[in-house]
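On clarity, I found the account of how folds are encoded harder to follow than it need be. An entry of this sort, consisting of the sequence and the corresponding backbone structure tokens, reads as follows:
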Amino acid sequence: MSPGRLRERECERAVAPWIRTRLRTAPWAAVAFGALVLVTAFLAAALPRAVDAYETRGLRQDIAGAPPGRTVLELTAPQPGFGMSQSEREEAVRPAVLTAVHHQVLAALPEPVRADARQSSYGVRTVETVTGTDPWLPRPDAVPPEFTLAAQADLAAHATVRKGRLPAARSEVTAATKELEGAATVATARSLRLDVGSVVHFGGKAGGTPLAVRITGIVEPGQPEAGYWSAEPVLRTPGLAALPTTPPMQYWRAALLLPPEAAPALLGTLTEPQLYWRLAPDPGSLTVRDVPALTERIASLENGPELLRLREFAGETTALTTGLETVLASYTSMREAIAPVVAVAAIGIGAVAAVVLAMTGGLVTGRRSAELALLRSRGGSLKGIGGRLLGESAVIALPAAAAGVLLAVAAVAEARLLPAVLGGAAVAVLACAVLPLWAIVRHRRPRAQGGRDDLADARPGRRRTVAELTLLVLSVGAVVALRRRGTSGAGSGDYLVSAAPVLVGLIAALVLVRLYPLPLRWAARPARRLRGAVGFLSLARAGRSSATGALPVLALLIALTTAAFGGSVLAGVSDARDRAALLATGADARISAPGDLAALPEGMDRAVRGTAGVADVTAVRIERNTDLASGGSVTLVGVEPESYARLAGELGLGAFPADALKAPEGGGGVLNAVASPGVAERLGTAPRRIRTLAGDITVRIAAVRPRTPAVPDAGFLLVDRGGLPERAAPTTLLAAGAALDAQVLRAAVRDAGEEFSVRLRSEERSAFRDSPLQSGAERIYSAAIAAGAGYAVLALLLSLLQSGPERTMLLARLRTMGLTTRQGRRLLGLEALPQALLAATGGVLVGWATIRLLAPGVDLARLALDAAPGLGPVDGAEGASLRADVWSLTVPALGVVALAGVVAAGQAWWAGRRGSITELRAGDMR
């Protein structure tokens, strides 16, 4: 090889690789950029996983928290047909046959339907109840108790014997057997006065010869709220039922547990014995992705091909019923209502993050402008420069994004991987592309050094005008669509509607940046005539800031708008829950018997009034379904006018003057009344006669109010309790107080009467936080506000860092002209103030305007109130609407101004520590 060629090879080896050289030149900048990409990729990957996780938890909790009677899959078959011989009928209900069918049913369930075998049950029960004829059984209104007899399998594994032993069949039981052994739960034995050795005789539908069940054991249910016991709650807990008479007559409904071998004895009764297999669902392995398939399989099990499969071994007359599909429908409805609201937060924080990443590219490009201009002037192609910058960014961004995704996967479990990977990949692509794109756009033509690049001199081109008009049309369309349809009408893919707050903030940012130089020019004119130069210089400098200053304003506006919208969502949710809790109780505390049927004992109001924290108490009488002489019924409420009107005014529930209930002089016994709109429309303004339990009264409507504390959820008629007959005693206490002690209050009520219960407004309020869907969406919004604030701070810092060297150079030059250190600090602070004030003021106005524009289309009822699985929206949902939250509007804006001042002061302090000789170097073009 020739010596010339060897020298060329040595020169080639001497050239250092581009990427390694650049990273060694600015290592801390590379570390900072990698940290930003890592955090952004973590948020982009964690968000979809967090949504997946809380939606899955919500599904599982809705199924597990719903009453087992609604979620259990109950497979039932009537008693064996009479076309079979008696021995064949008896054999068909014996434990071995039922157990075999049970195992076959469990194995035949289609995916993703899964049963919890431990809480599933099967056996034979009586559909028609049998009457207990023994005179020693309790009879509340002289009506004998009614019993359900159930021969349910596996009692020993689900109960603890507290007294006696479990029942058993001492010999083979047939349809003719009339003496059986049975067990009762502790609650049943206590309410029905049963004990070991008690013999309960049944008449009526028990057959010709009375059936007798001897109690051999008292058992305590294990996991009484689970499916084995609660699929049919009467098995564990008796209850009072009422006959449809006037007045209603109450009687006990209870159940006795027979051994499985005793099932043939039920065939000898007229109770329509029923074979059943109750399959408790197992939600432990379900995910949100299983909901469509689960709904489809349940429909098939109820009336489709899967039911035909079960009938192959359970019998041709077998039917399957369940309420699980209603629970799934309620869950799906809530999820679809919450998803668009959460998407607003996700798109908002995503937009801020994207702008901040773009700002980092602009900052790096600005710092390396001379280098890139030199490369272009010496023949560097855009493709070559862009490729080198892409490789330089990729070396940092790709590992950082991968680490962010891995951290998100580790932090949030039980969620899909693909959305997280796509989110991290999007961040990586943006982080890799932003620096090359900035360089290509700014250096597409070779540039001369030293040209101005500021807002005062910039002239928007046609492309920018077209882009801004396009964004304007998109934002207007999104706002109009959101106001017309609301978030509840937006599909899962309608991201334009969810991006409406971001688009409004974007248009406002572009408008403010266009108008930004005008007030600075107007303010600079009178500043010229001031004696000091600091004011004029600061305004002139602020007006000549880099044209890329539009990005910080854009980031700050979107962040402040997202924070205001998110704060308004959280404030609206809190207000709606507060009002719903108030409507549930009618006061801070409500004391009454079930159904408001029992009269309050003497002295209870004084006992409650003396409790710590109670400020006011009023006693009312509530009569539901009071008959009107003209037909129909109404809820009558007898109140003490002064105290009740005071309570209604304090709570804001249908306030009225106390004089509205006072009877007029010479009224002839007619009572003034305050009625709900529906009741007032039915009764009119003429006196009407009403038949109450205490006697007949005549009322005249004096005022109409939409709600009242005593019965906030029903049509009502308020009258003065003093005008009712003497035997109309109060039935309910309403107490007001800011700091009620629940334990002390319940103890005071318990001493006065054990049948009375206490409902606290604070406890009702806390009950609305149980749904993972709701709490998860709230956490997403809280995280979006925090992340938006962090990105806004970073955007402000990047903006100030971008102009930092130039400011330091200016300060050094002015010091050589006699500028003092104090004046230098004032100059930098006043220079940073206009842009911070612009962003803060614009953020407050845009946030307020966005909330006002979008409030009619955003319904937060499901996010705030629908906490009970399978139920409709809670009363009071009309209060779940967006409202401007003052703290969310002002605190972030004030923080932006304060931070800008602090950073400017710190920058001035740091510049003052460095000498002017260090900054004023020959050939420096800053």
